[in-house]
Amino acid sequence: MAAIAVHQFAQCITCHAWSPDHAMVAFCPNNNEVHIYKLIQEKWEKLHVLQKHDQIVSGIDWSVRSNRIVTVSHDRNSYVWNQEGSEWVPTLVILRLNRAALCVQWSPKENKFAVGSGAKTVCICYYEQENNWWVSKLIRKRHDSSVTSVAWHPNNVFLATTSTDGKCRVFSTFIKGVDIKEKKEGTSSDTKFGEQILQLDLSFSWAFGVKWSPSGNTLAYVGHNSMIYFVDDVGPSPLAQNVAFRDLPLRDVLFVSEKMVIGVGFDCNPMVFAADETGIWTFIKFLDERKTSSSGPKYGSQFSEAFGKLYGQSKYGVGNDAVESSRTRGGAHVNCINCIVPLREAGSSRITRFTTSGYTWDLGSQEDLLNYL
Amino acid sequence: MSNTLRLYLACIRNTLDAALCLQNFPCQEVERHNKPEVELKTSPELLLNPILICRNEAEKCLIETSINSLRISLKVKQADELENILTKKFLRFLSMRAEAFQVLRRKPVQGYDISFLITNYHCEEMQKHKLIDFIVQFMEDIDKEISELKMSVNTRGRLVATEFLKQFV
Prior knowledge:
The structure holds two protein chains of two kinds.
Chain A: E1 5-6, E2 15-18, E3 24-28, E4 33-40, E5 43-51, E6 57-62, E7 68-73, E8 78-84, E9 87-94, E10 101-106, E11 112-117, E12 122-128, E13 133-139, E14 147-152, E15 158-163, E16 168-172, E17 196-200, E18 207-212, E19 218-223, E20 227-232, E21 239-244, E22 250-257, E23 260-265, E24 271-275, E25 281-286, H1 299-311, E26 340-342, E27 353-356, E28 359-362, H2 367-370
Parallel strand pairs in A: 9-13
Antiparallel strand pairs in A: 1-28, 2-3, 3-4, 4-5, 6-7, 7-8, 8-9, 10-11, 11-12, 12-13, 14-15, 15-16, 16-17, 18-19, 19-20, 20-21, 22-23, 23-24, 24-25, 26-27, 27-28
Chain B: H1 3-19, H2 37-40, E1 51-54, E2 60-65, E3 69-75, H3 81-96, H4 98-101, E4 114-119, H5 120-125, H6 128-166
Antiparallel strand pairs in B: 1-2, 2-3, 3-4
Helix pairs in contact in B: 1-6, 3-6
Protein name (chain B): Actin-related protein 2/3 complex subunit 4
Subcellular location (chain B): Cytoplasm, Cytoskeleton
Keywords (chain B): Actin-binding, Cytoplasm, Cytoskeleton
């Protein structure tokens, strides 16, 4: 299966987000602006350019119901943009950060958003009506290094973070006046803001790309040691699994359904992981078909193919006779993929389409993977 | 080309393939700054273990990686005094023009002859496998260059000596 749509917007895209109706896409072309493009009659037209940040915009998120864009940047600032007429108007966000902001995500109810930063803190921002700005509460003293990725649990209170100290942590972000305390039996009493529910020390290298499954039961994140970690039953006694793969590390993951995860990273090729009936996660295949790779997790046959290429190298020129040239990746992406965003149909918990920094992929056409959805 | 050189270069290529997984990372120490962490070394959690690949006692390659930058230092084979001088002069010539190479470091790391510094910005502008090809090709060519230089020095010396001594014949 190949990508169904390939769009070349810029040489390098830092991050991107889709509008609720999937007609517009906002992304950062590796500078301090945010470009919004709209699909008009099969062609992408640049509609708006949001220019308020001084340094590269490291995170963009577009809320689904309230149609607001939040952007965070390496210049320690963040803005929430509202569409008024044909213009996007920024609202100030008091982040109180003294280092760069690295990632951002709207909460499921869209009344809060979380920002991970290089100041080893996480800011949870909520709207203050009286002053028309967004105020933040900080989770300090828990992280030993920069927070690379944040993810909200469907209950709008739990937040998972990954950091370059290799650990994944889950916090409670209950804010009085913004969140409503659920009077259900069985809920934990850890409803204090900033309370650390769980700390996972599974990776000995940097951790990136944490995501919750649609039900909030499973957590997945990747480590720079070419491993992906799945944690089931997040709570007092979690069940952790790790899948090691022989390719370059991943940067981000996406839960397509409760049992299927797509990972993207330095290999320029999305990888599919799925859990079978017993709950064991394994690597299934690469999404981009390449001539040299074989389908299915048969790493043995891949290796012998590579050897065939080495020995069959023809001698052309004095310089090249012994040094093989690097494998050119014949896929859609040429450089590393750094984020994956779903194109979610309203009301559906199954995701069949997603985009990776400029390329749209459709899972629906893949028959063997539909079993896992 | 000899078998050991092929293996040495293949090993370096594979290591670089894995080590060149760089991403943009703002400095944790100074706000609004973006520095190559492998040069700064202030946050040990952002550095990976350095790898030393030795072909023999005289030739080795040190690869140090961090989250946003990679440093490769090479020690070139120098068999005698003449090659020592030629290597030093030739590599100094290249290092002084480091801007033209973009990935070259102006001063080699202590104990090595030449160093490269590759940051995430280089990986964004240029393709990763082309960067690796460049480094490996450079290592291959360096040996040839030094041998050629040595041969030309010897040839010239022989010519000069022949001409000079002709007057005494």
